[in-house]
Amino acid sequence: MGQNSGENIDKLLLLGDVEAVVSVAYSPKLTDELARRAWWCVQSGDNARRMLERPAVSQGKMGRCWPRIWWSTCRSKPVHIR
Known about the structure:
Layout: H1 9-12, H2 18-25, H3 32-41, H4 45-52, H5 55-58, H6 61-76
Helix pairs in contact: 2-3
């Protein structure tokens, strides 16, 4: 799927489709608010890493909150070692 550079990338989130959320996450026009909404739709580490590449996100509210989210997620999952 190609990057979406259109003006209405926020409308893609209304589709509720995983591929649409990925398109938003990879968009060069991603904002901190759109990153928050995309994270709410699909919580994916790949999407989060891609969104954090954007200065608007990494320096915004989501950039400050993601480390806490990941830490709490990692601690809450059981680890099975074989």
